[in-house]
Design a protein that fits this description.
Helix content: 25-40%
Number of domains: 1
Number of strands: 9
Number of helices: 11
Largest sheet: 7 strands, mixed
């Protein structure tokens, strides 16, 4: 079992510095046993970041959307009446109480429930932040920029955030959506979900992550600011978000040309 103190030292050795804005993506199962579980990991991150650092996580809720892959899988094969009953049971999104989806990991939910954590209001792609920059990161999140430059993800880029991946591969490097949205010809689609006021529809870019694994391999081959370490049983990396997104943008433009 990894102690909180040992994990704090490991994060510091990787390059997590006091005052950093840090987006964490984690597979606790890959990391292995940690003193205090998810809470211990957050404690170690908070200690490494210090009082001036801000810890950020993705707290998406695709379960409340009728246009998500999770929903489509849940209603596959159901009759029209069964689909209607399923939709009637889907709870409204409440940024204060709705849990983060299990698909984004237990660490996101642990950060969401910490005293002082702030969460953005997007009913499908919310973000949570804990620390001095939390309000700046989460205050503005329009429906039409779910993972775009006007979202908390865009604020992380502006703030020169680092991305700490604990047992998570580049296939889940969420910030690559920012590079995708810089490309010409981005398509827009309709989304539908249960917001605080009930069912809503909105138009936003049609995003996918199926190409992230290959893109991540190419970005890592060119990046200079990435540090790696083996923590517990997990391969981990600390990635400068700006460098990764800018490299991904250039790679995508060259591929298109």
């Amino acid at each position: 079992m990894i102690s909180v103190a040992a994990l704090t030292d490991a994060f510091t050795a990787m390059g997590v510095r006091p005052g950093t804005v840090l987006h964490v993506q984690a597979s606790l199962r890959a990391l292995g046993p940690v003193e205090g579980g998810a809470g211990g990991v957050v404690d170690a991150l908070s200690e490494a970041l210090g009082p001036d650092g801000t810890l950020v996580a993705f707290t998406a809720t695709p379960e409340n959307s009728s246009t998500s892959r999770i929903y489509q899988s849940a209603v596959a094969g159901l009759s029209a009446a069964e689909v209607a009953a399923h939709q009637a049971r889907m709870p409204r999104f409440d940024p204060a109480t709705t849990p983060a989806s299990p698909t984004v990991g237990a660490l996101s939910e642990e950060i969401r429930t910490r005293p002082g954590a702030l969460r953005s209001s997007h009913p499908q792609t919310s973000w949570v932040a804990l620390g001095p920059s939390a309000a700046e990161i989460t205050a503005h999140h329009p429906l039409t920029s779910h993972l775009g430059p006007d979202s908390p993800l865009g604020r992380l880029y502006d703030l020169d955030a680092r991305v700490l991946q604990l047992g998570v591969g580049m296939a889940r490097f969420t910030a690559f959506h920012l590079a995708d949205l810089r490309q010409p010809g981005v398509q827009v689609r309709e989304y539908r979900c249960v917001a605080p006021e009930g069912w809503i529809t909105f138009q936003a870019p049609d995003l996918d992550d199926v190409h992230f694994a290959d893109l991540g391999t190419r970005v890592l081959a060119a990046a200079t600011g990435v540090t790696t370490a083996r923590l517990g049983t997990a391969d981990c990396r600390l990635v400068p978000m700006r460098e990764a997104v800018d490299l991904a943008d250039r790679i995508l433009r060259r591929a298109r040309a």
